[in-house]
Each structure stands twice: as C-alpha cells, then as structure tokens.
Design a protein that fits this description.
alpha/beta; six-stranded mixed beta sheet; two-stranded antiparallel sheet; 27 helices; 10 strands; 60% helix; elongated
Length: 627
C-alpha cells in the first residue's frame, strides 16, 4: 500500500512541494524550447494558423495521453514495494528463484537497456536545459551572444563540481524555485490566451489529425519536436519511491499540468499574431521589463532540473551495483536525513565530460534538440512492454483489457519514437551508443561473475562435507572469531579452504557470512537475518538487503545480537578471497569482453570498503583464476 495515501494535510503539502522541484523540474523546463523547435528548429514548419493549432493540439494530447494517463494514472500503480522506475519494473517481471531463460531473459535485458538509456538522458538534459535558459541573455543584449556557450559551461561544470558536497542545504529550495517558475509559466501564458482565446479550440484532437494529414511527412517529422513536451515523464515514475503516488499526482494535476498547458497555449496564441517570433517564442511572451529576472529564473529552474537528472543517474548506478550488474563503486551519502541524496564519483565525472562535450559540439539548444527524444521514447516503449507483463502476470488482468491499454500506449509511443528516429544522423545516435556501451558493461560484468563462480568451484567445498571433515579430523582451534564472506550459503569459501589447508588451524568461533541483494527495494530488519548454529562453534548467517539499501557488516552484526550471537567487528578477523584473474587460451566469453571484465574487476571497489569492514581486521587469501 502507498504510505502517501494517509499523509496529513501539512505533511502532504510539504511532500508535494518537494516533489514539484525534484519530479517535475525536467518536464517543467520544456517550454523553453519545445514550441520553438516545432517552428524554428531543424525541421521547423511554417507558422500558419492551422499549423499552430495543430501543434498545440498534438502537445495537449501528448501531455494527456503520455504523462497524465499512461504514467500518472496507470504506470504509477506498478510500484515494487513503494519504489518505481524501469529497474523496479524489471524486477517485477523477473521470475523469482528461477534462472533467466527465453522471454524472461529478453524482458530483463530490455529493462536494463531502458535503464541505460537514462544515462544518455542524464547527459543531454543538463546541456539542453541550461543552454536554452542562458540563450535568453541574447534577448537582453546581442553583446551576450558570443559568450552564451562559455556561461553555460561555467554553470554546468560548477554544478558537477558541487555534487560531491551534496545538495542537502539547497535541496529545500528546489520546490519553491520550481513553484515560482511554474507560476511564472502559467501567468505568462494566461495573458496571451486572454488576448487570443480562440487558441483554445486546439484542444479538439481534430486539429492535430488535420495537421498530420495536411503536412504528411513533414508533419510526422515535427512530432519529434512535439515530443519534447513529454521528456521527463520517465523521471516521474522513477521518483515514486521518494514521494509516493498521491503527492506526485496532486502536484501534476493542480500545478504542473495547468501551468505548462497555459504556457504552451500562450506561446501559440502569440505566434498566431506574431509569426516572426518563432525563433524564441518563450522569451517573446515575456515583457521587456521582465526579461532579465526571467532569464535568471529560467537558469535556476534548469539547474534544478539538471540536478534531479544527475541524482537519478547516481541512484540508478547504486541499484545496478546492488543487483550485480556493475562492479562495486563507492557510494557517498551526502545527507544524514535524505537517503536518496548520494554521490558516485566515476558517474559524475563521465556525465560532466559528456555534457561539456555536447555543449561544445552542438553549441545551441536547437541543435541539441535533434539529439533529444530517441532515448526517452525507446525507454517508454520498453516501459509499456514491461507494464503489459505486470498487468497480465502480477495483476491477472484479462488479455483484452491489458492488450487494449498496451496497444494505445504503443500507438502513441511508437509514433513519437519513429518521428525521433529521423534525427539519428543529427545527433540522436549519441544516447543510443551510450546506452549500448553501458549495457555491454552490465552484461559483461554479470556474465564474468557467473564464469568466476564456476571456475572457483574446484577451490571450495560443500558445507556439509566441510562439517563432516572437521568432525572426523578436528583441526587445532585458536582463540578468536573469524568471519568468512561467501558467495553461496551452502558453499565453504575459497579463503577458508586455503587457510585450513595451509595453516591447519580454525578459530574457536567461525562465521560464514552470505550477503544477498534481493529483488526488493528494502528488506525489513526482522527479515534481514537468517542465523543457523552448525555446531563446533560454527555459525551460518544469511543477510538479506534490498537493492535500495547499503549492505554493511555493522548492520548485520547489530541485528545478530538480537538473536543471541555477538560478533565484534573491531576484534574479529575477516577472511576475504582475492582472485588473481587472467584470460585463458580459450576464454568462456569473447576476448574483448574478457578484457573488459578484467578492467572492471581491477577498478572495482574493494569488498572490505564496500561492506564497511575495518581494514586492520582483513586477511586476504589469493588464488589464480582464468576467465
């Protein structure tokens, strides 16, 4: 059940304001460039009365069908213990406790690919948003035009450099900034709509259909620009776990949607009477006295939108690490009160380098818009596919109902996807290449670990055989506690086998610790620990963590105390296996993938640091393995 359904009025208002800043920052900055790209972009169409009404009709129904109905009404229902996002949706369709084969494996790979597409979005969104806002300086005075790219780079680089310090101090400003921004959007649009109320007839879908019929291929291509109004819809679903359904829905229908529609229709109303302003209709409806504060407000809004996307990339990486699709990376928590505020250094620097490269390469938001949309529409198609499986398998909906809904989603999403594919040679290839590279890394890391587990079998022992051996031929026991991390609960790890073989001693108390990441966002504390006394001072602990949690040995042993077992991390000896990897003459996967796996293994975070094990208590036992 969604906890947000029972929030008090004051708490609901506070959470809704926070959701406005984080959830709707991306989609809320689309008015800066969406209408402009329809009439003045790479494939801009003639500014005529029929075309303006047609584009506004398409924008209205895109927001209604994609954002309001598909995501806010339907997809938000598919939460995974309160969490949302394409990875959470993927775990919902993933069969539990069964190996992935056939259609199930294809669905999981599709879900991973959709998640990887969000990295490309995380690079383009800051670039196009901040650049489009700063371009407003050119409306203040032409003297600023040569410096727009430089100012944009300063803002973006500063934003990425500040990530390691966290956003806890300024995070409380995100909601108010976007609230002021949305209010300004609505008021600016309302003034224009009052002056030209006839623009409201664009709500009739017939105007959109006429636009597509009359303009044919050109009209279809313009759909790629129309779709810019819906970019950010995936972020709405991804942020479900932070805010819950009720605050997100209230904020959208009461604040964001009315403000956005008023602004889009206001820009359209202005173009009906001033078609020459198509080069930047957003700033054209801003009074001259308000241009300077509006550029400042737009810049702040785009910074907030960029911050939300960057934080989303950090969260996605953390989840992928916990689920075993990426090597261990250091995740720094930048706030003591907000779990979702984290920092992942490698991701931050890659995002910064690519974002800066995009700004330098494209040099205008209009050209960047050509690279935007493909990643998001592809992700939406995957979401629709996975959502169909959830409706059928999880909710047991009938095939006609689930099929009709999915057909509607596919018709809309695929139309926009096909229109955006016309941009491939104009930069849209970039997010697809990024997504494929990240997917290759994820699948290689997963497969490499499977191969390592197979190779290591000869260096381990079944637990029951190990217990029988030490009872039949007891080794020398020495005082102290020893903790052995193991990949499987019923296998004695290599470190124990090697230690016993060479040192021929066993500690008085031995703990086999198996830390698992479950296909759940969080595991309640009372379900986290399975503890079993195996006799002869030997214990087996299976610790269950969710993919949104941070697994640490201190948490494990604190929970073990409640079950009568005390392990002192400051005095116990932790035995870890250290594999020295190399590529064999006949590697189990392609040589380039084997080399990639070795690179990832060498640069991954040390297990002791990842599980927060005191470094002075760690003993590493090595072995050579070939992949």
């Amino acid at each position: 059940m969604d906890a947000s359904e029972h929030l008090s009025g004051k708490r609901l208002a506070a959470l809704s304001l926070a959701a406005l800043g984080v959830v709707f920052g991306d989609i809320g900055t689309s008015p800066l460039y969406a209408i402009r790209e329809c009439f003045h972009g790479e494939y801009g169409i003639e500014v005529s009365g029929a075309n303006v009404l047609g584009v506004l009709s398409l924008i209205f129904w895109a927001l209604m069908l994609i954002v309001s109905f598909k995501y806010l009404v339907m997809v938000l229902r598919a939460d995974h213990d309160g969490e949302g996002g394409v990875l959470a949706l993927t775990t919902l369709v993933k069969p539990r406790k069964r190996p992935l084969r056939g259609p199930a494996k294809v669905l999981v790979i599709l879900g991973l690919f959709a998640a990887c597409l969000l990295y490309g979005d995380g690079m383009i969104t800051p670039a196009i948003s901040v650049l489009s806002a700063v371009e407003g300086l050119g409306h203040i005075t032409p003297l600023f035009k040569p410096y727009i790219v430089h100012i944009t780079l300063v803002i973006l680089v500063s934003l990425f450099l500040l990530q390691r310090h966290g956003t806890a101090r300024v995070g409380s400003l995100f909601g108010p900034v976007i609230l002021v921004w949305m209010t300004a959007l609505g008021l600016l649009g309302l003034v224009q709509v009052v002056r030209e109320p006839s623009v409201l007839i664009a709500i009739d879908p017939w105007h959109g259909l006429q636009f597509l019929i009359h303009n044919r291929l050109h009209g279809f291509v313009v759909l790629g620009a129309v779709f810019l109004v819906a970019t950010g819809a995936e972020a709405i679903y991804a942020d479900l776990g932070h805010f819950g359904r009720r605050p997100i829905r209230l904020t959208w229908f009461l604040v964001a949607l009315p403000a956005l529609l008023l602004n889009y229709f206001g820009q359209g109303a202005h173009l009906l009477n001033h078609p020459g302003d198509a080069y930047h209709p957003f700033y054209a409806i801003v009074p001259s006295w308000a241009i300077i504060p509006m550029v400042g407000l737009a810049t702040l809004a785009t910074i907030v939108a960029s911050q939300a996307v960057i934080t989303g990339a950090f969260s996605l990486t953390s989840q992928a690490v916990q689920l075993g699709y990426l090597p261990r990376l250091r995740v720094t928590h930048t706030s003591v009160t907000h779990k979702g505020q984290i920092y992942v250094a490698p991701v931050n620097w890659v995002l910064m380098a690519c974002t800066v490269g995009l700004v330098l390469g494209f040099r205008s938001s209009s050209k960047l818009a050509a690279a935007y949309g493909v990643a998001v529409t592809a992700s939406m198609l995957v979401t629709a596919t996975l959502f169909f499986v959830v409706m059928r398998k999880r909710w047991n909906w009938s095939l006609p109902v689930a099929g009709l809904l999915t057909a509607l989603f596919f018709t809309v999403d695929f139309s926009f996807f096909a229109a955006n594919m016309t941009k491939i040679l104009h930069g849209a290839w970039f997010p697809l290449v990024i997504a494929l590279l990240v997917l290759a890394v994820m699948l290689t890391w997963e497969r490499g670990n499977e191969i390592l587990a197979e190779r290591a079998q000869g260096l381990t022992l079944p637990l029951d055989r190990f217990l029988a051996d030490i009872h039949a031929d007891p080794p020398t026991r020495i005082p102290g506690q020893a903790v052995f991390l193991t990949r499987s609960h019923n296998i004695v790890p290599m470190a124990m086998v090697q230690n016993l073989r060479h040192n021929r001693v066993l500690h008085n108390e031995v703990v086999f610790l198996n830390i698992r990441t479950e296909d759940l966002p969080r595991v309640p504390n009372f379900e986290k620990i399975e503890l079993e006394r195996l006799g002869s001072g030997i214990f087996r602990i299976i610790a269950h963590f969710g993919y949104m949690e941070e697994p640490t040995v201190s948490t494990v042993f604190a929970l073990c105390r409640d079950q009568g077992i005390t392990v002192d991390p400051e005095n116990a000896s932790f035995f870890l296996g250290r594999e020295k990897l190399s590529i064999g003459e006949d590697p189990a996967m392609a040589r380039w993938r084997a080399n990639l796996f070795l690179f990832l293994s060498r640069n991954g975070m040390d297990p002791a640091d990842f599980f927060n094990i005191p470094s002075t208590q760690v003993i590493e036992v090595g072995a050579r393995l070939r992949v």
